[in-house]
């Protein structure tokens, strides 16, 4: 797709009745009205969202307080285990507290409950909880909730010791603090899951334009598409002339950075991410000013010498922003957990499914001459070579016939892929579509050469054609499955897949590890991109 073609397609989208543009940055007519309506609706939705979350948090705090009172009341049951524990603690630790009047009725705490609700909502607002997106920020929301509830508990304790109000249970403070955190965190998790479901259905998405086609821009697009729960829909990107113009996998090039005004207007862009290299500083400034004049939200990502975005650490000293780089590596605990899961998971699959694997081996042997297990040299952690195992799915002379099929290669980059590869045996086509051919790789996992999750190990011939940035895939053990596999497999371009592998490596967490493991099950069952 060249730039002229892109502009032609954009002009077609503007063929509404009597569309007119005024200047480089202004527009009149139906397009302007449509953009204005869309922005008004988004602003109204944002206000509704904040009010709804305020009401929800207030109700959940009320529920939490009632649950805390019920929990505290359980300690008052005569001759129960909890009441005996409470009596022992009071007699041991509170020696001077000889008089106890029992737990007051719940109505006594109405004033305290209202104060807690208003206080928490105020702290949440001050700490920016209602400015965060409802998806993709659950851990950040949890941090704010825990911190705010702790500040509220400290205020209550201070008030209690300063004024000594009557009919107050000190244990109620602790229960209210714990239960409120638990209920609010679960509530936010459910809201985040619900919003993620709506976004996946295409409802309420933010139409996003990326300005920049270099590695930084591609990395941004891949980071965003790897997290569909964020609610962004990438409309396309603008070419920055740093390399030959072309589409990037599923992402369409909509023109050059000089076309930003036309694209924002014609495509009704909600938000712009400017990811230009450092040598295009003036164009970045121009894009920022243009977004401001058009009233479009924007984010500017600095080009920090191609550093991983996930490793950037920001802090400020006396208002001066400081940028640091975190070391990217697995800690000992993470290595232990992933290795333990790798061993248990691999042994379980091999043992429990052994009757099935024996039948598959027999079918491979009968269907065509050749070995049952196909052994191939692959490149793994730190570019170390190892032999990877698979059930043979091709005829014995597959490698010799590859040269004659190179012209029919359907994959970009160093990969060779054909949807209807004539070298594949009938039984091989079935086991490849169902991913059963990968089962012997569990032995590679047991031997420590691979992990259950990671970048797929390439053959040495492919690695010889890698660019330097693509070799970042070897920073971790290769995997039996990975983000590339669960997001589309052969349906994705090579560069897209590599960036997904780098995203996993640079953003590694146990949460992401288990998320990919679980996502592999529907990916295999639905056979997405498998051939």
Automatic annotation (TrEMBL):
Claim: Nucleotidyltransferase is one of the keywords in the record: no
Primary location group: membrane
InterPro entries attached to this UniProt entry: Bact_transf (IPR003362), EPS_sugar_tfrase (IPR017475), NAD(P)-bd_dom_sf (IPR036291)
Membrane topology of the entry: Multi-pass membrane protein
GO cellular component: membrane
Superkingdom of the source species: Bacteria
Region (Disordered): 1-29
Domain Bacterial sugar transferase: 339-525
Pfam families in the record: Bac_transf, CoA_binding_3
Molecular-function annotations in GO: phosphotransferase activity, for other substituted phosphate groups
Keywords: Membrane, Transferase, Transmembrane, Transmembrane helix
Comp. bias (Basic and acidic residues): 1-10
Transmembrane segments: 47-69, 109-130, 142-162, 174-191, 340-364
Biased composition (Polar residues): 11-25
Subcellular localization: Membrane
UniProt record similarity statement: Belongs to the bacterial sugar transferase family.
Protein name as annotated: UDP-phosphate galactose phosphotransferase
């Amino acid at each position: 797709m060249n730039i002229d073609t892109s502009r032609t397609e954009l002009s077609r989208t503007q063929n509404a009745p009597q569309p007119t543009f005024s200047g480089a940055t202004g527009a009149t007519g139906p397009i302007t009205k449509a953009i204005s309506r869309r922005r008004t609706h988004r602003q109204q939705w944002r206000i509704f969202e904040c009010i709804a979350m305020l009401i929800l948090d207030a109700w959940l705090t009320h529920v939490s307080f009632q649950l805390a009172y019920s929990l505290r009341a359980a300690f008052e049951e005569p001759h129960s285990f909890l009441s005996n524990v409470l009596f022992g603690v009071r007699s041991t630790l509170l020696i001077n507290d000889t008089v106890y009047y029992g737990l007051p009725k719940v109505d006594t705490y109405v004033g305290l409950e209202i104060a807690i609700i208003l206080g928490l909502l105020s702290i949440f607002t001050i700490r920016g909880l209602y400015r965060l997106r409802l998806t993709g920020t659950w851990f950040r929301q949890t941090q704010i909730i825990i911190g705010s509830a702790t500040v509220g508990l400290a205020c209550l304790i201070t008030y209690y010791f300063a004024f000594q109000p009557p009919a107050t249970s000190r244990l109620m403070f602790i229960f209210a603090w714990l239960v409120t955190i638990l209920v609010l965190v679960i509530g936010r998790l459910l809201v985040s899951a619900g919003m993620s479901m709506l976004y996946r259905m295409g409802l309420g998405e933010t139409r996003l334009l990326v300005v920049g086609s270099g590695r930084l821009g591609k990395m941004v697009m891949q980071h965003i598409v790897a997290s569909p729960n964020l609610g962004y829909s990438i409309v396309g990107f603008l070419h920055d002339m740093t390399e030959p113009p072309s589409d990037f996998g599923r992402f369409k090039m909509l023109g050059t950075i000089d076309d930003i005004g036309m694209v924002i207007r014609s495509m009704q862009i909600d938000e712009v991410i400017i990811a230009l290299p450092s040598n295009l500083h003036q164009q970045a400034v121009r894009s920022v000013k243009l977004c401001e004049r058009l009233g479009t939200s924007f984010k500017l990502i600095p080009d920090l010498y191609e550093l991983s975005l996930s490793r950037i650490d920001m802090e400020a000293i006396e208002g001066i922003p400081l940028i640091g780089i975190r070391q990217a590596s697995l800690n000992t605990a993470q290595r232990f957990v992933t290795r333990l899961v790798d061993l248990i998971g691999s042994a379980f699959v091999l043992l429990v499914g052994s009757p099935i694997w024996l039948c598959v081996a027999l079918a491979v042997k009968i269907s065509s001459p050749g070995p049952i297990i196909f052994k191939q040299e692959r490149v793994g952690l730190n570019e170390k070579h190892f032999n990877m195992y698979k059930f043979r799915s091709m005829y014995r002379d597959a490698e010799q016939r590859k040269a004659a099929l190179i012209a029919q290669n359907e994959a970009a980059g160093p990969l060779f892929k054909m949807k209807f590869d004539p070298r594949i045996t009938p039984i091989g086509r079935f086991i490849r579509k169902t991913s059963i051919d990968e089962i012997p790789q569990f032995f590679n996992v047991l031997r420590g050469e691979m992990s259950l999750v990671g970048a797929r190990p390439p053959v040495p011939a492919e690695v010889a054609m890698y660019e330097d940035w693509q070799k970042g895939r070897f920073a971790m053990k290769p995997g039996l499955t990975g983000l590339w596999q669960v997001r589309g497999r052969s349906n994705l371009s090579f560069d897209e897949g590599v960036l997904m592998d780098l995203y996993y490596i640079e953003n590694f967490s146990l949460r992401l590890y288990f998320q990919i493991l679980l996502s592999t099950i529907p990916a295999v069952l639905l056979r997405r991109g498998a051939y």
